[in-house]
Write a structure and sequence with these properties.
20% of the residues lie in helices and 33% in strands. The chain has two helices and five strands; from the N terminus they run ααβββββ. α1 crosses α2. The protein is elongated, with a radius of gyration of 18 Å.
């Protein structure tokens, strides 16, 4: 995130400049795209619902994806009122 913000600000490291650059910014992570919500700087990304499947061929439980929960499906409240 900080690398993307610094590219956007032309390497300006002033706090307020970086905050403005990060607000609403989306960037790739190992888990997919993450976005900093502009309203409260909450990092939003997909979550994964899975269950553990018992496979007799394995000595441990195997995670089985049930579904991906997209950020737009989540009702994460905005708690601060800037």
């Amino acid at each position: 995130a900080i690398v993307t913000a610094l590219k956007k600000t032309g390497s300006d490291t002033k706090t307020n400049t970086l905050i403005k650059a990060l607000e609403g910014m989306s960037f790739d992570t190992p888990k997919g795209v993450m976005t900093f919500r502009k309203e409260d700087h909450q990092a939003m990304q997909s979550m994964y619902h899975f269950r553990i499947k018992n496979d007799p061929a394995m000595a441990w439980g195997v995670p089985e994806l049930v579904r991906e929960i997209k950020p737009e499906e989540m009702n994460v409240p905005v708690r601060n009122q800037r």
